Amino acid sequence: MSTYDQVEIEDMTFDPDTQIFTYPCPCGDRFQIYIDDLYDGEEIAVCPSCSLMIQVIFEQEDLREFYDEAGTQPPVPVTVSA
Amino acid sequence: MGVDSLGLGHDNDMMEPQLSFEGPNKPIKICGGGNFTALLQEDGSLYLAGDVPLERSSSDDNWIQVRGLFKDVSCGWSHVVAITSEDIVVSGGVGEKGELGQLDTRHSLSLQPIWTLQNPREAQVFACFYNTYVLDDGKLYGCGSNSKSQLKESKSRAICSLTIVSAGPVSHACVGKNFVCFVEKGQARVMGTMAQYEAELRNIMSENTNFEFNSMWTSIVVLLHQKFYFYGQASQKQDVVAVHSFNEPATAWSTGSEHGMVCIDKREVYCWGWGEHGNCGSIATSRAINGVNDKSNVNSEVNSVYKVTASDSIVYACFGGCATSWICTATSESETCK
């Protein structure tokens, strides 16, 4: 997948109320991605107003401080039994 | 996107030039923030359109005049920096990374003084993204994000007042997302994310003094001897101008967030690069009803977007903003911007 840019998570803005990370897009809107999606391994943030995407550079442990800031916990893995 | 940064009174993206501003005074500079546009006229009057980060004196007009007179202006993601007619550098808007240069102040609804110029004659202001730079008396000062060493070698999240970037003498500068490029003692210098291109830029500039350069968010474009050179990322065809030849001289050119534009022989304007919002014009297969963008020209080749038709009219300037393109035309009686 071709992305417009790579952005380190520390350069993104986190809103603890919406639990969304955002970053300015050259179209004037903002790339966005949910913290839970990052935790689940997704690394592509999309812009709601155009086709550009960025790759978020992060480690899963980087997310801990943001969960703490939001007062929430990472999603619990769903166990599927046979 | 859905904000009236074109100053047209609606939020449609347009892919054919529309008349946005008209008057007896010549616009001399237009620059774009994330969702707004600043327009400076030769008489010093400054206008803003779009999602303006300053207090609006009126909600009715597409373009709002800022109180006072100004000599220069530039825009970051959500802030404005300008030089007043009294030779004071002022800033306003939102500056979470210190780009307002107002110490602890992160939001300023009006333009506030941050610097008194030492040598007003050649002073300039530059802004992009989360940074502000002031070129004054041959020295370059800056504030805002320093996460990529675009202000100082030692990284930091925010520098909240103007600090010396280069003691100079600095003669030219351009600013992109997390980088600054400038000419210091005749040598190119690049700080921040584009520092890797410093050696290449030094090579091309060292033997020449008659060059111009501008920045997109993630690249630097140089015009030298009527040829364009490109340095940086080009995933949206931002570099196609470097392999293009024009038959007539470039008389004006500019860069936007991820596109460029050039006026050839004061008559025809071409755009290239990322044009998803209509900012690189329509192409042969476009179906732009009433000029509204149909997203048919997302990553644009060098594309003709405007040609003067009246014999007494010229294009005297063009400017790129955040996915916006601006063409300034003049006749013997009036000046307009499209």
UniProtKB/TrEMBL annotation, chain A:
GO biological process per UniProt: protein histidyl modification to diphthamide
GO molecular function: metal ion binding; oxidoreductase activity
Keywords linked to the UniProt accession: Iron, Metal-binding, Oxidoreductase
Pfam families: Zn_ribbon_CSL
InterPro entries, per the entry: DPH3/4-like, DPH_MB_dom, DPH_MB_sf
Catalytic activity, as annotated: 2 [3Fe-4S](0)-[protein] + 2 Fe(2+)-[Dph3] + NADH = 2 [4Fe-4S](1+)-[protein] + 2 [Dph3] + NAD(+) + H(+); [3Fe-4S](1+)-[protein] + Fe(2+)-[Dph3] = [3Fe-4S](0)-[protein] + Fe(3+)-[Dph3]
Gene3D superfamilies per UniProt: DPH Zinc finger (3.10.660.10)
Pathway field: Protein modification; peptidyl-diphthamide biosynthesis
Signal sequence range: none
Domain DPH-type MB stretches: 3-59
UniProt cross-references to PANTHER family, sorted A to Z: DIPHTHAMIDE BIOSYNTHESIS PROTEIN 3, DPH3 HOMOLOG-RELATED
Family according to the record: Belongs to the DPH3 family.
Full protein name: Diphthamide biosynthesis protein 3
Species assigned in the record: Lachancea nothofagi CBS 11611
From TrEMBL, chain B:
Family annotation (Gene3D superfamilies): Regulator of chromosome condensation 1/beta-lactamase-inhibitor protein II (2.130.10.30)
One annotated GO molecular function: guanyl-nucleotide exchange factor activity
Top-rank lineage group of the source organism: Eukaryota
InterPro entries membership: Ran_GTPase-activating, RCC1/BLIP-II
Gene Ontology CC: cytoplasm
PANTHER family: REGULATOR OF CHROMOSOME CONDENSATION
Identification of the protein by name: LANO_0C02344g1_1
Source organism per UniProt: Lachancea nothofagi CBS 11611
